[in-house]
Structure formats: structure tokens, C-alpha cells
Amino acid sequence: MKLRSLKAHGVCLSSFVFVIALFVFFMNVPLYAAAEVPIIHFAWDFDLHAGALLVATARGEAFKDSGVYLKPLVEKQQYELYSNGEKLALLEMVVTKGSSESAVLLGQKRIDCCVNSITGMMFARDQGTPVQILCPIHVDGIGLVFPPKTDFYGWDAVEKYIKESKTPVRLGYHSPASAPRVVLETALKRAGLKVTENPNDFDAEVLLVDLKGSRNLLPAFTGSQVDGWVGPSHYPETAEVQGIGKIVLNLKDFPPQGQWYDFPCCTLAAREDSIKAHPEIYQALTQLLHNSANWAMENRREAAKINADIIGIPQEAVEAATIVFTTTPTEKWMEGVKLYVDVLNDLGKFNGEMKGKDFNDIRNFFFDFSFINKVK
Known about the structure:
Layout: H1 2-27, E1 39-44, H2 51-59, E2 68-74, E3 78-83, E4 86-95, H3 99-107, E5 113-117, H4 118-126, E6 131-136, E7 142-146, H5 155-164, E8 169-173, H6 179-190, E9 195-196, E10 206-210, E11 228-232, H7 235-241, E12 246-250, E13 266-271, H8 272-277, H9 279-298, H10 300-311, H11 315-320, H12 331-346, H13 359-366
Parallel strand pairs: 1-4, 1-5, 8-10, 8-11, 9-10
Antiparallel strand pairs: 2-3, 3-4, 5-13, 6-13, 7-11, 7-12
Helix pairs in contact: 2-9, 2-10, 3-4, 9-10
């Protein structure tokens, strides 16, 4: 009996020691912060369209004087969000391939918010995911790229090349829901060109090809996968700097002329339930991105170096980009959003909540500018 009792106590002691060991271990892992503040799962990617957020993570506590800043726990993975000295949240960063993947993760409630294209968030909303746009994070920054030996530039030359081709010109894109893909298809169709996604439709003039992720843009000319591709900055600029592609159209050059400037692309978006549960967090995130966007535009060379180092591309490519970091939803920006809504309806891309909706119908449920309107 005495031996059995000692063994039993030994088991209890071992279990106690094991529990204490686990406690000590996890106290040294950044995840312990999750017990103190809410966890926000935040989707992004390491590209220039997320540049304002990349700058905010890299500068970290250098933004402390502005009132809102990030404290890195694990670089590119975990950050504590502070506002006026108070820790508000633990940001768990989630890398996605593009807006289509982020839309799925939002619908599955695996992420709370993201920086992705507004068109991707439209598709998410159309599919029943209650996502809202809180603010832009940049405008412009889209380019059409052809192989490096291409000897022309401008829409007239691109149109001539397409019309003279004996087979459909294959133009790639990185995500079906991305702004570059929507801009490209809209411009082509408004110019009267026949566009298809069916590789067996040889009567078409342009075949759109899903390259399945932005990382597949730069190597897309290897093996002649496509004749050209449309993509977000930094990819067109990097292609030129590395000698693997040539930009034949910047966004402002797409037809119709004069339509594509200050044009919507990526935004800060979040699920409605997360916004309602943590308004103070989203106010701080909006303020942070506002501050970071302004700093990046006022300190272009330093911001270019930060983004180039994080993304892993030449600084020259970042400095060549036409992207403008801003969080202000101007009237021109809203006109661009309206164009997206009208075009996507005309093309029959919506099948759910967004289908047949006039822009004025969606303004009240798709946007929440209450946070950006309070930034200082």
C-alpha cells in the first residue's frame, strides 16, 4: 500500500513538474500575449501594394510619437498593436497568394482583416461574406508586361499587336478577383476586342490566363506560358530591372484615356463581426496605415529601401513604381469603385449579394469610413 501511494505521488509530482515546464516554455513564446489582448488574424503579402503596412511593421516603435505603432514579436509574423501607450491587440500575420484566397479565408473566419484589392472584397461580399472596406491603402500601380525584346509602348501599339496576331494573344493575371485582372478585361472589352478564358476558343483575340499567384508573374515568360501579363507593382518594375520583361502599358495608358488615374486597387478590409467586436483596434489600424502612407510619400527613398529589403527586390524597381500610398477615399476614387461595380455587373461576374446592385445600393453596406473620418 505504501509503495503504491509513493508511486501515485510520484506520478502526480511528475505531472505537476510537466505542467510547470510547459508554463515556463510558453511564457517565453510570444503567443503568451494572446491571453492578454484579442488576436487579430491579418492577411497580407510581401508586395508593394501592401507597402504602407510593410513600412509600418519595419519602422515599428519609430512611429511611437504618432500615438499608434507596432512592436514586433516575431518579424513578419507577430506584432503587438499599441495606441497611446495601451496594448490593443496581437496581430497574427497570414501570407496569402492574393485577393481570391483572402476572400475564402474571410468567409471561413480564418482571418479577420486583410490588405487586398477592392475587387476581391467585392467578390467576397457577393459570396455572402460580410466584409467592409475601411479605407484605401494606395492608388494606381498596375502595368502590362511583354517579353524584354518588345519594341513598342502604348495602347495603339498593343492593340495593333493583338489584332495582327494569328492566334489569341495570351495575357496572364495573378488572381481572378484582382484589380489588375478586372482592369485588363474591362479595357480590352471596351476597346471592342473579343476576350475569352476558353483555350479552345480560337475565334477570340485575347485569351486570359490565370497564373495562380503573383509569384508566378515574373517567371511567366519561361516556357512561353503567356505572351504578356498584367500585374501590380512591384512586379512590372522588377521585370524591367531584371531584364525579363518590358512594361508596355502603365495604368494611366489603358483605354479609355483619362479613366485610369487615382484608381482604386488595394484597401484595408475586415469582417463586420470583427469590426463590431473591436472598433478600437480598427480605429488604431486605420490611423497606423494613414500615418505610414503619409510617411512613405514624404520619405520616398527611405520607404523604397524598406520595401525593397522586405520584398527582396532591387530598390530601383520600387523607386520606378507609379504607386501612390493614400488612405483617402476621394470622389475620384469612389468613381473608380463605381466603375468596378458597373463593369462586373455588365460582365455577369456577380451571382449573389452584389448581383444587379447599383453603386448607391452597396455604398451603405460595403463601406465603413467612420474610422478613416476620425484619423488625425
